[in-house]
Write the structure tokens for this entry.
Amino acid sequence: MRTVSPVFAGRAAELRELRAAHARACAGEPAAALVGGEAGGGKTRLVTEFTRDLRTLAGGCLDLGAASLPYAPFSAILRHLGRDAITALMPAAALPDLARLMPALTAAALPQDDGTGQMRLFEHVLTLIERAGAAEPLVLVVEDAHWADRSTRDLLTFLFRNPPRARVLPVVTFRPEEPDVRAWFAELARLPHVTRLDLPPLTPAEVGDQVRGIRGDAGPALVRDAHARAGGNPLFVEALAGNPGETVPGSLRDLLLDGVRRLPREARMTLNAASAAGDRAGHALLAAVTGQADPALSEALRQAVDHGLLVPHGDGYAFRHALIREAVHGNLLPGERSALHRRYAEVIERSPGLSETPESALAVHWQGCGDHAKALAAAWRAAGERHAATAYAEVLGMLERVLDLWDRVPEAPSLTGHTRHEVTMMAAQAAGAAGDPHRGLPLVERMLRESGRNAPELLALRAMMRGFQESGDDEMADLREAERLATEPGPVRVRVLAQLSARLLVRGEAGEAARLGREGLELARRLGPPVEGSGLEVTVAAAAARDGDGDLTGLERLRHRDLDPPERIRALNTLMHCAMNAGRSAEALALAAEGLAAAERAGLAHSRGLPLAVNLVETLYRLGRWDEAAETLQRHLDRHHAPSFRLQMMIWRIALLSARGGGPEPDPEVLAVPLDAGFPQAVLPLAKMIIEWRLSADDRPAARATAEAAMRHPRLTAQPCYAWPLLEAAARAGGPLPRIAEVAGRLPAATPVAEAHRAAVTALTGGPAAWGTVIGIWERLEQPYPLATALFDAACADLADRDRSSARSRLDRAAGIAAALGAAPLARRISERARRAGLAGPSGGPLTAREAEVVRLLARGRSNREIAEELVISPKTASVHVSNILAKLGVASRGEAAAAARDRGLV
């Protein structure tokens, strides 16, 4: 079996399933596996990884149509096993039948077939496989069984229905899209011992892993493009990554077109027409373009669907993979392509209702047939339609098409009513709105070069792009220079002030943000429409809200205003952030749902909607809904690759990892982020979670070093909502306690959440211990993990004060919460502390009241009989109590139990 790619990406769950099936086979249980996946889907690579260190015999079926070789995979398996091994394992009488698969096995003539020859052969193959696996477990691999001849299918059916008794695991790979064998594979999969694995497409994150392995790096744009075009198919990804200059690499094109060439002529012609339609083609549109009517058109399309080339999609059809469409379209002759595009353009222009997006389609088809003027005009109109629908990514695509055509259409300014510079600015603004700096930044840089001066509007636009790329210092430098240059009290200054004040707010500089925001808002109101001031209103309202401990009236009013989608999403996210910081988790969840739905409707889920996704994960984590938090986190990580977003999400991956004691590791880049610089809203929560992670792994020195680095942050106190959790974690790690106490002494705590952290920090740094206050707050806020942690800390304080009854109650309650959450590290600490205090032993249970009485007598040297007499119980019962005490105290003798009881203050 050959390796498709140098990197094995994804497939962890499927690999576990195969290993589980192998373990069952090794234990003597019947087991078999079917591995289904489309061409290039990673079947061979998965099986290769699975069998890497296992004894394996493999054979493959050949795509020879009617000329297929009978039993081809089994002939290969016997050849790999070898003549000597076969003759040693099988009796001489079996060799002539087996020679049907391996003629060189014996010189004896093949036996006459009396009607039982095939069954004898099947029985001998089964026996041979069982004996081959008797000495050492064996994996029997048959690849590409969708091409299997009928005899091979019959033999495989026999082996699956009569699974080998020895330690043998048959593994069969196949393509589920092949219509002739679907029913057969479904029948095999229904057998109770068979595991069927259908390989899904790789996720964007897995595609990124594969591309990085092939090319050594993988920028977000490359990963998105590879995932979108390859549809998550590993072979297609490899071809794209290894041939960056080709639209569809030649070796892959041959693979893709193989199924097309097997179609009847009418189906091929229809498929060719569909390839010119774009992502999908409606049935009525195809009928108009091809001139075919039903039932002939439906029959041609049915052939393409049955061969796995097209899939039904609404009232039309889509190619199973974008690369299949590219290969089919690229295989057309230039004249064929041009004629098809012209036909589409004429049909859609005459009947625009046949296309869901007629102007966009016309732009593509007129350009495809070489009519550049009509293509540019249609693209310009399509950009306007998409902008009205706030579909910013599509606006960018259409404007890029306009710019590409500009030099070929002399009348472009009259067709659009704008100069090229103005259209380029529109495209760059669309890129900013769509959160796509990789396409937008080159547009801005080109305009700066062409203008020969640092225009404030261009600097502000470049700052936006740099902000997406996490170039914080460069971003702020551009914005401050833009503010300096925008001296004219007009719309440009309003926009610059809006952008600068918003970014200052993000950096925790609320005072300056409020001042500049109010200036911009007053100027916008003086200028009046069309100058827009809603963004400034959100900034001023957010500054007033002060992360949840200020006035929320302005934000609530804006929530119900008819704002532009970006500002509405921002207002909802700020309200959610304030609700979280105030401990109103149910309200935060409702705001997250409202905001994410608005982002999805506006086509801003990949940009403006990302902070809401981060806050959603945080809220679920705080509520103790960790499975939902982990699932939501991974789903968004699979879809989004912006560095700032991944950093924020990694904070909560680390949180789950530290709280649960296991799970996916954070990105290495995140652990290298400097903790004494950067935005407080990112760096301080990151430091806090790394501290907790190190503590959960009992690495106190690393936790303390992290705390010391974060405590040096120059804007540590800019936003108390981020500082308080860090201070508590740093104090628990034994960080610089005097510095922690000093900072806590001047930091406001205006929300219930902040008050809980302040009381905990005070206690941990040697001040008055008000653990009851901390516990009460977390109870009211229904946040179970900090509640369990506070109960544990309070119990430790009780033990120091020799209040064993309160300590026992709090430890028992904390243990129950930790168990329900699956907080393994905390549960371990609770158990160990209780055991050290003599409140619980290795069994995890506290000493009962009767056991406490027994241990006091035991410490005085009493025998079991003397204990029984004093407590009025039987000697046998006294003996049982003593045994339980020894187990709970983790000691081996009565003398050790007495010493442990004295050490722990039990007597």
The radius of gyration is 35 Å.
